C-alpha cells in the first residue's frame, strides 16, 4: 500500500486512483474525501495521523483529472435526505390537481432563455443572506446564483465552470458576478477567482466531460466596494477578526506580513465591512446587482413567460 508520509509522484497517485476506483465499485455510492480516510483506516491501510494527507491527495487527483471531480460526495452537503411530509390534500383533490396540470401544463414550459443572447451570467455571493436577497433579481433574468461560503469547494467550482463551458460552446460570452465582504480575505477571494478556476481546468467528470479553461471569462466584483459603502453609510466593524476567530491585524497572525493584508491595512486600516450589511438597504442592493446584469443583457430585459406567451 502507498506510504502517504512520503512524497507522492504521478505514478503513486495513479496507483492510488486505481485502488479508490476498485473500492468504490464495491461500495456503490460516493463518499466524501474524509469518508475515504475512515474506510481506509477500517481496512488497516492507514491511521488517523494520515487523514489530512489522504484528503489532500484525493483533492489533488480531482484537480488533475486523475479522478472524476464528482467522485467524492460534496463537502458541504449538510442537508437531510429522505424527509417525507404527508399529503395535506385528499386523493380526490390530488387527482384534480394532476388533471389541471395536464390542461395548463404549457404554463410550466421553460424556453431556452439563452437563444439569441450574447452573454451568459452566473452570480456568486459570500453570504447566504445575499443569496436570499438577490434570488428574485436573478430569477427575473434566469441567472443561477449560489452562496460560495467564502472559498468555493472543488465541486462547486467545477459545476459552475461546466455551465460556462456549455455556454461558450453555444457562442456566448461568459460573465461571473461576485458579491463579497470588504476585508482582506473578501477582496482576495474575488481577485483570485480566475486562478481558482484554473486549478480545476484539468478535471474530468464521470460522464467524460472535461474541465473548463476560464481564460475568456469576464469576472466582475459588484459588491461590496469602498465607494458604495460610503454612499450608503454602512457600518464598519473595527477589527479584522476572521471566521476562525483569529485577528489578521495581529502581528502574530501567520498572514499578517503577507502583501494582501499589509496593502489593506495601509489603505483602509484595521476595519472591515461585511456584505450582510446590504440587507439593511435591500432595494438599493438589488438595484446594484440589476444594474450590473443589465450592463451585459440590456436595460429592462428581464423575462417573463405566461399563458398568453404560450398561446401565441
Describe, in plain words, how this protein is organized in 3D.
This protein is α/β, with parallel strands linked by helices. Helices cover 44% and strands 7% of the residues. The chain has twelve helices and four strands; from the N terminus they run H-H-H-H-E-H-E-H-E-H-H-E-H-H-H-H. Strands 2-1-3-4 form a four-stranded parallel sheet. Strand 1, helix 5 and strand 2 form a beta-alpha-beta unit. Helix 2 packs across helix 3 and helix 5 crosses helix 11. The longest helix is centred in the N-terminal third of the chain and has 18 residues. The chain is globular, with a radius of gyration of 23 Å. The termini are far apart.
What overall geometry do the principal axes of the alpha carbons give?
globular
SS class: alpha/beta
Overall average residue pLDDT: 86
Helix count? 12
Give short descriptive properties of this protein.
single chain; 312 residues; alpha/beta; Dna Topoisomerase Vi A Subunit, Chain: A, domain 2; four-stranded parallel β-sheet; 4 strands; 44% helix; disordered C terminus
Q: What is the topology?
A:
Layout: H1 10-27, H2 33-42, H3 51-64, H4 91-103, E1 119-125, H5 128-141, E2 145-147, H6 154-169, E3 173-179, H7 184-191, H8 193-198, E4 218-223, H9 226-231, H10 259-268, H11 282-297, H12 307-311
Parallel strand pairs: 1-2, 1-3, 3-4
Helix pairs in contact: 2-3, 5-11
What is the gist of this entry?
This protein is an alpha/beta fold. Helix content is 44%, strand content 7%.
Amino acid at each position: 500500500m502507498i506510504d502517504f508520509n512520503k512524497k507522492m509522484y504521478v505514478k503513486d497517485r495513479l496507483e492510488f486512483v486505481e485502488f479508490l476506483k476498485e473500492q468504490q465499485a464495491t461500495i456503490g455510492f460516493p463518499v466524501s474525501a474524509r469518508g475515504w480516510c475512515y474506510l481506509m483506516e477500517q481496512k488497516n491501510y492507514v491511521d488517523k495521523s494520515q487523514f489530512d494527507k489522504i484528503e489532500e491527495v484525493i483533492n489533488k487527483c480531482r484537480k488533475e483529472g486523475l479522478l472524476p471531480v464528482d467522485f467524492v460526495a460534496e463537502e458541504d452537503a449538510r442537508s437531510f435526505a429522505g424527509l417525507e411530509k404527508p399529503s395535506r390534500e385528499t386523493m380526490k383533490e390530488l387527482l384534480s390537481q394532476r388533471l389541471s396540470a395536464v390542461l395548463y401544463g404549457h404554463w410550466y414550459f421553460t424556453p431556452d432563455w439563452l437563444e439569441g443572447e450574447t452573454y451568459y451570467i452566473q452570480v456568486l455571493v459570500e453570504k447566504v443572506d445575499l443569496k436570499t436577497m438577490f434570488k428574485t433579481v436573478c430569477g427575473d433574468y434566469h441567472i443561477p446564483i449560489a452562496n460560495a461560503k467564502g472559498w468555493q469547494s472543488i465541486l462547486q467550482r467545477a459545476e459552475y465552470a461546466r455551465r460556462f463551458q456549455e455556454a461558450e460552446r453555444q457562442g456566448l460570452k461568459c460573465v461571473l458576478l461576485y458579491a463579497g465582504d470588504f476585508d482582506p480575505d473578501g477582496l482576495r477571494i474575488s481577485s483570485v477567482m480566475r486562478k481558482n478556476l484554473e486549478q480545476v481546468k484539468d478535471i474530468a467528470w464521470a460522464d467524460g466531460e472535461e474541465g473548463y479553461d476560464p481564460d475568456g471569462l469576464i469576472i466582475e466584483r459588484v459588491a461590496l466596494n469602498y465607494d458604495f459603502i460610503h454612499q450608503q453609510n454602512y457600518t464598519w466593524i473595527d477589527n479584522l477578526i476572521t471566521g476562525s476567530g483569529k485577528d489578521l491585524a495581529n502581528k502574530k497572525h501567520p498572514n499578517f506580513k503577507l502583501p494582501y493584508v499589509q496593502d489593506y491595512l495601509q489603505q483602509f486600516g484595521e476595519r472591515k465591512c461585511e456584505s450582510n450589511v446590504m440587507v439593511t438597504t435591500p432595494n438599493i442592493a438589488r438595484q446594484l446587482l440589476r444594474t450590473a446584469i443589465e450592463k451585459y443583457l440590456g436595460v429592462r430585459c428581464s423575462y417573463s413567460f405566461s399563458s398568453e406567451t404560450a398561446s401565441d
